[in-house]
Design brief:
Blueprint (H helix, E strand, L loop, with lengths): L2 E8 L6 H6 L4 E5 L11 E5 L3 H10 L3 E10 L2 E8 L6 H7 L3 E8 L2 E8 L2 H13 L5 E6 L15 H13 L10 H8 L3 H20 L18
Antiparallel strand pairs: 1-7, 1-8, 2-3, 2-6, 3-5, 4-5, 6-7
Helix pairs in contact: 3-4, 5-7, 6-7
Length: 230
């Protein structure tokens, strides 16, 4: 199952380091594109009032061979930049792990990226590659975007269990500290305290077993639906 990871990098780990460091108000975002061939040609959007600083930074960036100002619209300027053939740093680490960029925003001395990997092993390879290159990264979140929301979820979880878990999540039952107690959650679900506890416990166990054991064939009687799960 594919993995999406939100990662923060210091500005000096990617392009436009000087522009972001010396101009706190600058915000740059990468334009999402589908790469053609082996050439990585990113598009940047930057606010019109910061384009001079962006141009100055691109002119001295060793990772950029050339750039071109394309369009200005709604207070932003679109810049097309062509990378040098020998790309080092985080992009090299990403290529090593066969990852891809979904989104990237640079501001306040920090780049925040959303990366997609084929699986958790590739994400781990990316992290190790960054460590080997002395790139400081901070993984903010990891999730699997392909989990279905239909009945059963593919994880041996019943619709009733899914409803209970979603209600508990949205009501803040899993927050620290909790925003709702078991009794109030049960009242919202129209169940007894015991039935609610059993439903969310069995649903949680099924999700953990399916995700943490990576689909190993291992079942117990505790995960089988009971009358109170229907």
């Amino acid at each position: 199952m594919s993995v999406l990871a939100t990662v923060e990098l210091p500005a000096d780990a990617f392009v436009l380091d000087s522009a972001l460091s010396e101009n706190p108000g600058i915000r740059v975002r990468l334009e999402r594109v589908i790469p053609v061939g082996s050439t990585f040609i990113p598009y940047f959007w930057a606010s019109d009032d910061s384009i001079d600083a962006i141009e100055a930074a691109l002119q001295v960036d060793d990772d950029i061979d050339s750039f071109e100002i394309l369009d200005s619209t709604d207070g932003e300027t679109l810049v097309r930049a062509e990378w040098a053939e020998d790309i080092d740093g985080v992009l090299d680490a990403l290529a090593t792990a066969d990852g891809s960029i979904i989104e990237g925003v640079g501001e306040a001395n920090t780049w925040t990226f959303s990366f997609r990997f084929r699986n958790h092993d590739d994400l781990s390879s990316f992290y190790r590659a960054c460590v080997d290159r002395d790139i400081r990264i901070d993984i903010q979140s990891i999730h699997n975007p392909g989990i279905p929301e239909t009945f059963g979820l593919g994880f041996d979880i019943t619709e009733a269990q899914r409803e209970a878990l979603m209600t508990a999540l949205e009501a803040g039952y899993y927050d620290v500290p909790r925003n709702i107690n078991l009794t109030d959650l049960a009242a919202e679900l129209g169940l007894s305290d015991t039935a609610t506890k059993q439903r969310i416990s069995r649903g949680t166990a099924a999700l953990l077993r399916a995700t943490l054991t990576h689909g190993q064939e291992e079942t117990t009687d505790d995960t089988k639906p009971t009358a109170e799960d229907t």
